[in-house]
Amino acid sequence: MKITRIILHHLRMNLRSPFETSFGSIQSRDCILLEAFCDDQVGYGECAADRDPGFSYETAKTAWHILQDFLVPAVLNQKISNADDLQRRMAFVRGHPMAKAGLEMAVWDLLGKRRGISLKQLLGGKSNRVQVGVSIGIQESSPELINTVESYLALGYNRVKIKIKPGRDIGDTSAVRQAYPDLRLQVDANSAYSLESAQSLLPLDELDLLLIEQPLSEDDLWDHSLLQKEFNTPICLDESIISLRHARQALEMKACKVINIKSGRVGGLSQAAAIHDICLAHNVPVWCGGMLETGVGRAANLALASLPGFTLPGDISATDRYYQEDITEQRFTLNPGSTITVPTGHGLGVNINRKALEKVTINRLTID
Ligand code: OSB
Ligand code: MG
Hints:
The chain is of the alpha/beta class. The chain folds into two domains: 5-115 and 353-367, Enolase-like, domain 1 (2-Layer Sandwich); 121-341, TIM Barrel (Alpha-Beta Barrel), CATH 3.20.20.120. Helices cover 35% and strands 21% of the residues. It contains twelve helices and 13 strands. The chain has helices at residues 60-75, 83-90, 97-115, 119-123, 142-155, 170-179, 221-230, 244-253, 269-281, 295-305, 319-322, 354-360, and strands at residues 5-21, 24-38, 41-47, 129-131, 134-136, 159-163, 184-188, 212-213, 235-237, 258-261, 286-288, 339-341, 361-367. α1 crosses α3. The chain is globular and about 60 Å long. 51% of the residues are buried. The structure holds 2-succinylbenzoate and magnesium ion (MG). Residues 55, 135, 188, 190, 238, 289-292, 315, 317 line the site of 2-succinylbenzoate (OSB).
């Protein structure tokens, strides 16, 4: 197929409640929605880069620049039969995985629509419903954190992840554990510790956590391997796994026992699926991470999480957890048993609500 036109939409969407991590607090979420046109069809993609370079160096504006000036010109009017073709055309751009992943998602959506099958089928997904949990930001105090946890448990979530940072780690986590002795609980530090300061996290090992996510720097596989030796609790890497190569090296180094897979962080769904495959071959459990996506990225996450190696619940919550109004006509809801149903429509299986899109668009560009 040949893509003849691409439209970029820079979105800014208000979250229903502020989301605080060790790298900052946000009230609204930026991203780029891509529309890729081929014959009479359009594919949607979501580039997850946010306004600030807190989670990674990419921002919505750097991704816009890379897409506008490099990736889109390299792809327009070229013959692209699959994600590998696309990746070859994009390979001259070093880094910028979220920009690449956004474009790849739009190509996957088109591939599915043209073949009349869902993204889940294209990727080789198995489950019709996937296990999900909720990721809770740092709250004002431990009692407020417990209230927030309670409210999500009441909605039916049966796995909770809480964000931690130095000074808000052991106290918060023990408080939640004490209030809910049987809860499936995990923590995410978003790189807030060094090998030295992470010694203060050792008491977490007594709290029966599913995993400890990304305690150390994103560029630090080696120190994670040293830290994992000190913990029985599995260390899970998020920021550090930026490619299939890093995943392999992390496994060889024993830098982690679990991997969080996000298509944006690794440059696309094709890379995400490849990381899933080697983890499955090594018996290393994976789960699908989230980036507070709109319905577009959420649909892609659900399809990805339907692959058989995704044995831990994903950070894929219901639309209501994030946004009052989403840009897709579909809203995702929680089923009993803390699952969400994987879309079955062609491609991503979502349609855009144009009115809703209009309200949150702060910049738009057509390239043809
Ligand atoms: O580290 O997993 C993370 C959100 C934005 C950036 C990074 C992370 C997160 C989350 C939220 O934890 C996951 C979600 O519910 O989308
Ligand atoms: Mg994380």
